[in-house]
Amino acid sequence: MNRTLALLLTLAACAEAEPVEPPPPADTGGETTAAVTPPVTDPFAPPAVVAEATADTPELAVAAARLALRERVLGAWGREAPITLVPGAVAVESTEAGATARVVLDEAGLLALLDGLDDRLPRPTFGGPFAESVAPLQEAAIANFVCTRRRALLDGQTCEIVDVEEQVRLAADALRSLTLEPFWAGGVPVDAEGQPLRKPALQLSLGPEAASQLTGLPFLVTPVGEGESLRVGVDAAGVALVNMAPGEGLVAILDRASLVPPLDAIFPELRTALRPRPVNLRQWALVAEPSDGPFAEALGRALQDRGAEPRQSLEAARGRALKAAQGSRREATLRSLANEHQGALDVVLVARVESHFASRMGSRRTWYEARAEVDAYLAWTGESLGSFEAQGNESGIGDARAEEAARVKVAEDIAGQLAASPALGFARGATAASSLREAIVAAL
Question: How many CB atoms lie within 10 A of CB 82?
Fold first, then answer.
């Protein structure tokens, strides 16, 4: 699943997380009560919905009354439904207990709300393989929902409820292999001070491919510990950026409450954790000449022996471009590489290696001298992490073996320097916060 920097820049510019409408403020320490009267049944009186609530303060009373109105108009689903109802007339009266708020929808307001409900309900966009199964089900589910609310709120309403059982089965089959995972492999990249180097992001996939035809599918992202949740939707590439610092970790789940029933039941369990991951040398790539093969292989073995991952491969053309680039061009190239690898690449090493004949012992054994210079860069920002040098002599039977031995020796020397450098954060990668993992596992 290759991603380009252009995709991420577009996402970063466009994606905005929508705050979740809070439930009634029940944790303020005050008492809140709410009551709703049914619609007026007198044929000569205009139908109306009245919601009334009492609380310690006028603000709490109005919030509770409006929530009660939502639940009356939208049913049980209304408490979490991500739509805004235009309230009717609001009256607040002071009482000995605090305040009582009364919200009224008259006939015109109620009819206007119901007539426009079809257009106001949230609609993820289902295309591609889902267009023939999930999209028709969504429209049928919305029509059924509006019909049931009309029947519940208005006398004498007649409308048809469509049987969607077969559509539910087909839609569930189409979505069976849907999965949710972090966009950045291993976690949200953060620097040594814990500052995020990229926004947290989600990737929705269908089997091995990005789920590119579920635009707007909603997810709820909640911080581990304390903090307000955010509602985000995936874009046409199945990606959702989260405008929230990773903190001690985030947990994302499919926001079933945002989907009109029975759409909430057709999706598999979709849940993932977004944890901060300190960037470090353990995820690395090397830019070197083809003739530097023995040096590159020896460096890789030495770093893996110290706990690094196998080095990431780079296209030869990208390596040449990076080696030739300077200043802002080099930084842009490095940032692009980090984005394309989606979290699998933190550090890029640019090596210059040379070796030459030193001396000969007898007729077969020769000595070669090798010298290496390695510049280390943080891929996420393009900043330099330092330069490292090594040189050494080594012997072998024949020129080829002696030269290879000398290059291996300096590679092992360079690997030791890299692993010991605080700037490269090798130790951070080795001890990355098991407590964070435990907190996220508990939240999941």
Answer: 17
